[in-house]
């Protein structure tokens, strides 16, 4: 991963990390069919994140007596938005009083929904959660690396056009020199040359040169206008060696990753609206501020010991079965009598140390001054990227940029800072894209380092091939009366879809076990 990061930048390493989760188009054939539940059968669900709430919702529909224990004072888990007026205290005691204007927010965790995450889309519709487009791919955003163009950021469209044009020209020369596979027929060679000419905007001599064709992709030095002086002026091409140094190919591949292709969505008003929608279905089942301290099962059922974090006191809750959706980082610290193999699996999976920083600006200068509407600008600095808001286009007044989505080494480094120090780094490094506006327009900010989130201790589970082989099946297996669920118990790691698919699979197997009891 370090090698990929050095060559391709943050986008490439993030893509690789996603690939390790083996994410693909997800499987959802509709809500589970849980018929024949025994009268009075009970299930206790640990955690009111999306996995826990979906499990509770479907189990209650099937006739089970269900109760949810939730550590926090709200539902949603990592499906979370910070709004103006919110207060958040991280491990170490640093407290942030969020001062965003009304309607503005930061999504510390999930922030986008792929079009093929059918489970999540189904339940958002069923639970009345309004969605809107999330602009993932923006040709007019920037790519920055300290290794190219003297550290000056360049528009994605210009770099991508010059990369494609340069590669097309080189391949065209290889065709003419018969340097490609000899098994290609002359007709195929001609077709390939025609494809390269169209794809790479090459001239009649198969060259990628400054002119109308190249500028129609990369942008103009002077755009077309009207009247007497309306003729456009073509733009200069970048030196091809600088284009290669920019690593633009990594971003081009990033946008083709299955999970990041258009169309993507986001909830209207913040990602936390999904958690609110789920909570409307099962809120009557949730006991909040319940910190689980012990988990036990025997032949007669499951006993959960929990502390009331608001009023004090320790209580036991009993049920026939248990669906545990607590993050593995936390579950590994809870006293339990699960098997040695199950505990080994729980302890085997590390979590990423991602950091997000929200920066509220006085005005939407990225739109007004730079013609950027949604999408991301990428950098090889610690912050990883800057992402522009996908809502309220053309509006006056403050708006919140995602000023950092740091992971890998950058995430670990920023996690060791105070919230205000993280904001300062985001301002400093993000200024490379908008030097005339960033600090001048800044109002306030908020940051979340996931390794310091008390109820998660990390962003999401990071399986690799070895841990999947040695521990995955043990982790997801039903152990007598207890089954685990969550994004960590799926092959769609780090996505809400993985949490939901895991929950549906877990309760289907639990239901079968309950009928056999």
Give an overview in words.
With 517 residues, the protein is α/β, with parallel strands linked by helices. The protein has 18 helices and 23 strands. Strands 12-2-1-16-23 form a five-stranded parallel β-sheet, with helices on one face. The protein has a four-stranded mixed β-sheet with strand order 10-9-19-20. The protein has a four-stranded mixed β-sheet with strand order 15-14-13-17, with no helix packed on it. Strand 14 (301-308) and strand 15 form a beta hairpin. The two termini are 47 Å apart.
SSE arrangement:
Layout: H1 2-8, H2 10-20, E1 42-46, H3 50-62, E2 65-69, E3 82-83, E4 87-89, E5 95-97, E6 105-106, E7 113-114, H4 118-126, E8 131-134, E9 142-144, E10 154-155, H5 156-176, H6 186-199, H7 212-218, H8 240-246, H9 248-256, E11 264-267, H10 272-282, E12 286-287, E13 290-298, E14 301-308, E15 314-319, E16 321-324, H11 328-331, E17 335-336, H12 340-348, E18 355-361, H13 365-368, E19 376-379, E20 385-387, E21 399-406, H14 408-415, H15 419-430, H16 438-441, E22 442-449, H17 465-476, E23 482-484, H18 496-516
Helix pairs in contact: 1-2, 2-9, 3-10, 3-18, 5-6, 5-8, 12-17
Global structural class:
alpha/beta
Q: How much helix is in the residues?
A: 25-40%
Figure out the total of helices.
18
In round numbers, the mean pLDDT is 94
* Weakly predicted, low-confidence segments: 1-24
Number of strands: 23
Tell me about the largest β-sheet. 5 strands, parallel
Radius of gyration: 26 Å
Terminal CA distance reads 47 Å
Proportion of residues in extended strands = 15-25%
**Cross-sheet strand order for the largest sheet:** 12-2-1-16-23
